[in-house]
Every structure is written in structure tokens, then in C-alpha cells.
Design a protein that fits this description.
CATH class of the largest domain: Alpha Beta
Oligomer: single chain
Number of domains: 3
Radius of gyration: 25 Å
Length: 341
């Protein structure tokens, strides 16, 4: 079963939003509606959700001095600021290896786009397709990735780009006359896919900066980051299943490890292994969920302690009080009297 695509749960690097804070001074405007304090935005130390990322991008639209600002920004950013992916494609043996690496690992950094590389006759296509409605920022978030790949090709090809082209699915934009300032190849609108298209033969162009040691080290970092994302994803999915159970009006306790694994369509051993890789365990995640839910329910004075115990699946109030004291260091009654402090 395919996991629902939830922009509020999918995490992204904060790199691109932090770069925006170097371009625009109005941090309050950029942060509006994200839940992130403006003063924290420039040095934000945590991943952000896809929705927060997209909101920040949308928030800068009124701050731009021109509608093609993103292309100027993308050209300056180009092949940099993509984590281990930057190191990998800069040290790749050929242009083709570099593009393949970018397309393979960028979904971990830009998850709202479907990235595809495919051969078509004598051409090779680098395609990006939105997975969510990008609304007013669609042009920006499609054109910048294509421009970044275009700049990479220019760096290695070192010759005329006339045989390449940019294809866009939408009608000509208001700034269509400015594309020639950024793309050294034709741009076609109203096409079936958004793509950078190059002659397939260009894939064999050697990278004069190829460094075998750096290349393999960078690939290992990309793979490690991808595995880490998978592990965090499993933790989040386990939390979702447990949260769904706790949200029921009269739950009979949390589902077992075996029941959670069945919901996730994998084995219990797989869940255990991936949780361990993320430095946690099923018991720890379950305890965390019970603790948070207990605090939420006790915040409502209408909920009696025995009712909260039953909602959380405890056989009696005494067992719940014992668990609660282990979590918070005080009994539920004392916790309420101090306002949860």
C-alpha cells in the first residue's frame, strides 16, 4: 500500500529556506504561517516540513524585484548547496554519472517533485514532475531544478548548447523574453513534460575533475542519507499507526508490534531493525506516544484520571499512575495541580 503523501509529515533539509534569508531581509514575511519564529529562521537547526518549505517559497513572491528573480538565484546557486549530492556530481567520472546521481538522490532533498532520467532515441531526458499542487510557485520550483541541471551540463560540456533544450508543460510566462539570459539552449512551452533534454552522446563526456576516492565517498554519504531517511520514515509511520489507535473514542490499548507491522505491510523484524537503526525501539516510541497522549487528555479538566487510564488501555488506574510517575516524576493529580509544570 502506498503511503499517503502528506506535506505536513514529510521532512526536508532547511538549506534552501535558509538561503532565502540571505536574499531577503523581511524574515517575518518569509516565516509567516510556518510556525517558525522569524528570528530563528536564518539559523534554524532542524529539518522542516514540505508544507513549511512551500509556504516560505510562496511568501517570498511579493518580495521579489522581478518575476525572473528565481532564475538569477538558481544560476548563482547552481550545482552547490545540495549536501552530499553536490560532492557526488562534482566528482563523478562522466556527465551521465553526475546527472544520474542528481536524479537518484535529489528526491530526498526535494520530495515534492518526481525526478526521472530516461533515454529517448538519441536524446537523454531529465524530467521533473510536481507531486503536489505547487500553485503560484510552480514555475519557480520547476525551472530552478532544470536550470541547476543545465548549469551542470554547461560546466562539463564546455561547448555550444544548441543541441539541448528545455521543455515546459505550461504556456509562455510573462518573463519569457528573459529565459535567454539564463538558458543557453532553446526553451519550448506547452510540452508533455518538464525536462532538460540533451543528446545522449553527451552522457559520455568525461569530468576532468573526476576523483575516484571523492566520488565513492560522496556516493556512500548519499546512500547513508537515503537510509537515514528510510529509518526516520519508519519511525514516523509507526507513530502514525499508534496515534490513530490512541485517537479512537474508546481504544483497547495500543496495537502490538505485530499489528503495527501488519499495518505497515512488513515483518516485525523489519520494524525492529529499522527502529534500532534510528536509535529507538517500538517500546520507546509507544511510551512516547502514551506519554504525550496522557498529558493532552489530562489538560482537559473534564477527563477523570480513571477515564484517561481507560482511554490509554490501562487495566486499572494504579497501573496508569505508576507509568505516569515514571514519565513525569509526579502523579497525575500532582501534575494537574501544578499545571503540568
Amino acid at each position: 500500500m502506498k503511503r499517503p503523501f502528506d506535506p505536513d509529515r514529510i521532512l526536508m533539509p532547511n538549506t534552501y529556506v535558509r538561503l532565502l534569508t540571505q536574499e531577503f531581509d523581511d524574515l517575518a514575511a518569509i516565516a509567516a504561517g510556518t510556525g517558525i519564529a522569524p528570528e530563528d529562521l536564518a539559523d534554524y537547526a532542524h529539518p522542516i516540513t514540505m508544507r513549511q518549505h512551500l509556504r516560505c517559497i510562496a511568501n517570498i513572491l511579493p518580495l521579489r524585484q522581478s518575476p525572473d528573480w528565481h532564475l538569477h538565484w538558481g544560476k548563482r546557486m547552481a550545482e552547490n548547496f545540495h549536501g552530499a549530492v553536490t560532492l557526488a556530481w562534482l566528482s563523478a567520472p562522466t556527465l551521465g554519472h553526475g546527472l544520474d546521481t542528481f536524479i537518484k538522490y535529489m528526491p530526498d532533498r526535494i520530495p515534492y517533485l518526481d525526478w526521472r532520467g530516461r533515454s529517448h532515441g538519441e536524446s537523454f531526458r531529465c524530467e521533473v514532475t510536481p507531486l503536489v499542487d505547487l500553485a503560484a510557485v510552480r514555475h519557480m520550483l520547476i525551472e530552478v531544478p532544470l536550470l541547476v541541471m543545465h548549469e551542470y551540463v554547461c560546466m562539463l560540456h564546455r561547448g555550444p548548447m544548441d543541441d539541448a533544450r528545455i521543455e515546459l508543460t505550461y504556456a509562455p510566462t510573462d518573463y519569457r523574453d528573459r529565459y535567454a539570459d539564463y538558458f543557453l539552449c532553446p526553451v519550448a512551452f506547452g510540452q508533455p513534460r518538464n525536462a532538460l533534454v540533451i543528446p545522449a552522446a553527451w552522457r559520455a563526456i568525461a569530468n576532468i575533475d573526476f576523483d575516484e576516492g571523492a566520488w565513492h565517498a560522496a556516493l556512500a554519504r548519499c546512500e547513508a542519507a537515503a537510509r537515514s531517511d528510510d529509518e526516520r520514515d519508519v519511525v514516523e509511520r509507526v507513530r502514525e499507526v499508534l496515534a490513530d489507535a490512541l485517537a479512537q473514542p474508546a481504544p483497547a490499548g495500543l496495537p502490538t508490534l505485530q499489528q503495527v507491522a501488519a499495518r505497515l505491510h512488513c515483518s516485525s523484524r523489519t520494524v525492529i531493525r529499522r527502529l534500532r537503526a534510528a536509535d529507538t525501539s517500538f517500546q520507546a516510541v509507544a511510551e512516547e506516544m502514551l506519554k504525550d497522549r496522557a498529558a493532552t487528555l489530562l489538560d482537559d479538566p473534564r477527563n477523570r484520571v480513571q477515564d484517561v487510564a481507560a482511554r490509554l488501555g490501562y487495566a486499572d488506574s494504579a497501573s496508569f499512575r505508576k507509568a505516569f510517575k515514571r514519565w513525569f516524576g509526579v502523579t497525575p493529580g500532582a501534575w494537574r495541580r501544578t499545571g503540568g509544570v
